[in-house]
Design brief:
Distance between the termini: 67 Å
Radius of gyration: 23 Å
Number of domains: 1
Number of helices: 4
Shape: rod-shaped
Order of helices and strands: HHHH
Oligomer: single chain
Strand content: under 5%
Helix content: over 70%
Largest sheet: none
Structural class: mainly alpha
């Protein structure tokens, strides 16, 4: 009986540790995915506000970019761009 209780306790602890690790990894992946999506949203909203809309081609290009540093650079270039065509050349 002692072996059974000990085995159950070890199993329970192992499951708890596994669940915690799984949750941490899931949260990290969610954050890693969410940050670029947020940056994409900001850039798209800036484009729409600045130029009165976001053409589908530009929207697709922005949504393919996952590198937040590149999205930040685009956001800065967007402030200086005189036209959508000029901005699109930087994508």
């Amino acid at each position: 009986m002692l072996d059974t209780r000990l085995g159950q306790e070890i199993l329970r602890e192992g499951m708890q540790k596994g669940i915690q690790k799984g949750m941490q990894k899931g949260m990290q992946k969610g954050i890693q995915k969410g940050i670029p999506q947020g940056a994409q949203h900001v850039v798209l909203r800036q484009i729409a506000t600045r130029f009165g809309g976001t053409p589908d081609g530009i929207r697709r290009k922005i949504l393919r970019i996952k590198d937040t540093k590149k999205l930040d650079r685009i956001a800065v270039k967007l402030l200086k761009a005189r036209s959508l065509a000029e901005l699109e050349r930087t994508l």
